[in-house]
Design brief:
The protein has about 280 residues and is of the alpha/beta class. The chain folds into 2 domains: about 190 residues, Vaccinia Virus protein VP39 (Rossmann fold), CATH 3.40.50.150; about 70 residues, rRNA adenine dimethylase, C-terminal domain (Helicase, Ruva Protein, domain 3), CATH 1.10.8.100. The chain is about 35% helix and about 20% strand. It has 11 helices and 9 strands. The strands form 2 sheets. Strands 4-3-2-5-6-9-7 form a 7-stranded mixed sheet, with helices on both faces. The protein is elongated, with a radius of gyration of 21 Å. The N and C termini lie far apart (about 45 Å). The structure holds S-adenosylmethionine (SAM).
Amino acid sequence: MNSQRLYPQAKKRLGQHFLADEMIAQAIVAASGVGPDARVVEIGPGPGALTVWLMRACGRVWAIEFDATLIPLLEKRVAGLGVLHVERADALRVNYRALAETSGGALTIVANLPYNVGTAILMHLVEQREAIAGMTVMLQTEVAERLAAAPGSKAYGALSVMCGMWMSVEAVLEVPPSAFRPPPKVHSTVIRLTPRSRPLAETKDLDLFSQVVHAAFGQRRKVLGNALKVLGADARLWLTRAGIDPERRGETLSIPEFARLTNLLADERIASGAAPISVS
Ligand code: SAM
């Protein structure tokens, strides 16, 4: 632990908790597996706790930081370690597909994500999955558990399905609040997300898949036959036709079952003449 280093005044609204433990920073970069050939994108580098180790491993990093005041500190900290392309931008608005094209291939994301928008940034990346080679990110433990959860577990929900369809998720490191300045109120977990070579199931309509999943978990106390009525009065009929008991709850459905239900619903909508929901 480097207790001598001075950290910038943290901005709560930007989820700033700066990593102060060099061993953990090194371990995160080692877990990401990056080497000189990787196209590494760091989201929210802050004053550079991870960036220095990324630069040492790869010699080149693309960094996206929202807080312009931190960029001079970052540049100073990594000076002489290689090439840093730093952009002052909101990671939620970055076009990672375009970045993969300009940088010459799929991106490896490494980040200690800001807690307040970490989930949204991660899902923005999952949506652009063809531009991603892999991700090693730190999040609050509760969110990491939801991402990695299996059907039937308490943590299993819309996030588990919308991520697990395309990514395998493994926890690699637990990080206590004492590793940060200032310490957050929650524990953190580093997870590694690897794009699947094929999604866990085929869906005919991604927008509809997302609607079905969110409706199923929207009212967790309701059985599916009732929860899915927000999508149409015939919810029980669709479930029965898809071979799913309408008395089951959303948290028991596997990803292939969600896909089967979506595909049946998409076919029903086409057959009944309702405009199909467009594929995003
Ligand atoms: N990587 C540094 C570390 O480990 O010490 C800082 C991590 S801190 C938890 C999150 C960082 O993300 C901060 O530097 C913050 O300014 C930045 N950030 C917050 N919201 C952002 C956004 N929407 N886009 C890009 N960066 C953001």
